[in-house]
Specification:
- By secondary structure, the protein is mainly α.
- It has one domain.
- 53% of the residues lie in helices and 8% in strands.
- Strands 1-2 form a two-stranded parallel ribbon.
- The N and C termini lie far apart (25 Å).
């Protein structure tokens, strides 16, 4: 999935869900903007494939269980 799933104000990031999740998991931290991007992807009318949904679920699991630091 490309950046097209993200709202207009975030589209300039030109990052895919896979790249964003990889960056989040590698650094073990997530920004508020990253959270918003992933929430929008889940709630948008765009169709996510199973791999993308699984990646996003992993990130939010990490947030819920304190495995990822939330930064501004």
């Amino acid at each position: 999935m490309s950046a097209q799933v993200f709202p207009q104000k975030f589209r300039s990031t030109k990052v895919s869900i896979e790249e964003l999740v990889a960056q989040i998991l590698m650094h073990r931290r997530i920004t508020y903007t990253d959270q918003q991007l992933l929430r929008f992807a889940l709630l948008s009318d765009e169709t996510l494939n199973e791999q993308e949904r699984t990646l996003i679920d992993r990130v939010f699991y990490g947030v819920r269980h304190g495995l990822l630091s939330i930064v501004d």
